[in-house]
Write a structure and sequence with these properties.
Order of helices and strands: HEEHH
Largest sheet: 2 strands, antiparallel
Number of strands: 2
Structural class: alpha+beta
Strand content: 5-15%
Strand order of the largest sheet: 1-2
Helix content: 25-40%
Shape: globular
Radius of gyration: 15 Å
Number of helices: 3
Length: about 90
Amino acid sequence: PRDRQRPLDPPPAYRELAATSRVPSVQTPSGPAWLITHHEDCRTVLTDRSFSSDPRTPGYPSYISGGITPPPGYFLMFDQPDHTRLRRLVTR
């Protein structure tokens, strides 16, 4: 996390990273991770099944360890097909 000058704008440090590297490596408390800074790269990551939202996935880059199970019903951290199945229960 970086300090923001305005609450809805990205921190200046993120803009600097985006200007110097398309997908820069960053350090998290649990190790290195990639920071996605461009819209088209975000779309690719969000639609590619080789990426995971589940902190139980080995190598998940987060301060959340794989030993922490998402709360019941919290499907934002699930991968397909569980995420899609649960999302369809609450959306049209």
